[in-house]
Amino acid sequence: MSETLRIDKWLFHARFCKTRNIAQEKAEAGRIRLNGQRVEKASANVRVGDVLTLPVGGKVIALRVLQLGERRGPPKEAQTLYEVLLD
Q1: In angstroms, what CA-CA distances link 7 with 19, 41?
Q2: At 13, is the secondary structure helix, strand, or coil?
Q3: Which pTM does this prediction carry?
């Protein structure tokens, strides 16, 4: 079984959400797509290689998960967790 991380934790670690609670709310509101499928639970699992589509700053971006991350680090560290595919 490959390593996974809850989508709300990943969004928090990658600094797409200021708090984990905000990440949970976005996931449960259905604002995020994981590999083309709408996410409705904060407990959805993210794996390395998955593609996420989410709203950021008034626009929609697509990104590929490169790492899961172990903590919410500084922005430079957070940017190593993903690759932007569509901005």
Answers
A1: 13, 9
A2: helix
A3: 0.94
